[in-house]
Amino acid sequence: MRTLKEKNKFIATILAFAVIPISGLATDIYLPSMPSMATEFNLPESSIQLTLSIFLISYGLTQFFAGSIADSFGRYRISLISMALFVVSFLITVSTDNIMVIYAMRVCQGALSGLAVVSKRAFFVDVYEGEQRKHYLSIMTIVWSVGPIIAPFIGGYLQKHFGWQSNFYVLAGYSLLILILELIFSGETLKTKNPFHISFLLKEYERMFKTKDFFYGMLMCGLSYAMVIFFNLCGAFIIEHKMGYSEVIAGYASLILGFAWMVGGFLGKALINKAFLPKIRYANFIQLALIVLMFAASYFTSNLYSLVAFAFAIHITAGFIFNNYFAYCLGRFPDSAGLAGGLTGGVAFIITSGISYGIVALIKPEIQLQVAEGYFILGILGLFILSMIKIRKAHI
């Protein structure tokens, strides 16, 4: 397998950034189509919402061993295989009217996303060092947020003019383009291969799980992103079915909330040198204050504008917390970057999928007040974890 050439380092970095948002693109591009899919398949909302949760669970579980595979067999080959299989799975998705086949393809797409994204996360640790590495890891989380920003915006127009299948045709074309460019410009970046042994894997996972700051960081990443997925699961249905707006408007709403996540990422990067835990606590307190304000306002005004405005502010705080903790966790174990990235993503996205789908199933949000209730549960869980960190530090 050829190694990355120095002259192609910049282009390979751009390609790595292009792969990073693939999971967000695959989850968010069809959000405006979910109500129409439920109607076309003659299924309840929960059955279509499950396609998103299945993807996230598969994405999270895959990352547990994707890091070990990337550290043992390299990054480049995994990326190529993932992109090729992406094309096939997306084309199968659009060619079926069987929801079980779509579920199976979403499992495959989640697994492929896990393999591809973990490999590219490790790319930045392989290629860059010191402050430059810290810089690129922080940018990486911002680039990752591009997927949720542009995907539903594009998906709204695709749904309106071409139907839900067009979303997956676009994803297949995007994957094919990256595959071709990777074959031309990229290469292997792994310098030293770690053994692929179960005993080694368990030993490394034990070491990471016992590192408390890393463990709590994974939990906070999961809860922060769960706020976004919680809204994604119910937002389009509320905007389209309950408020009567079109799929394009639902796409614009998701676009705005995607920008909120990116703003939180930029704030995280801007304040990267500030004391870590105090800024996370301040963000959580602001988040809870906004949620309480959303509760109160819901008794006086409840419309598209108020819903999106409150969600926008809350998602900024979630993006800020996620950016800080995710970058911290990825750089915590540079000697096992693939494993650390895989474990972080695995735990975070399993928490995200389980909690977000569980809250939606419990509350069944149909109005702004119920959305605030879901946010409140997540905000309180974040406060509990941060309180545990503070108590632990006080006893050290």
UniProtKB/TrEMBL annotation:
Subcellular location: Membrane
Keyword Membrane included in the entry's annotation: yes
Any one GO biological process: xenobiotic detoxification by transmembrane export across the plasma membrane
Coiled-coil portions: none
GO molecular function per UniProt: sodium:proton antiporter activity
Entries under PROSITE patterns matching the protein: MFS (PS50850)
Topology within the bilayer: Multi-pass membrane protein
InterPro entries found in the cross-reference section: MFS, MFS_dom, MFS_trans_sf
Domain Major facilitator superfamily (MFS) profile: 12-396
The organism's place on the tree of life at top rank: Bacteria
Gene3D superfamilies in the record: Multidrug resistance protein D (1.20.1720.10)
Transmembrane segments: 48-66, 78-95, 101-124, 136-155, 167-185, 214-239, 251-272, 284-301, 307-327, 339-363, 375-391
Keywords, alphabetical: Membrane, Transmembrane, Transmembrane helix, Transport
Protein name: MFS family arabinose efflux permease
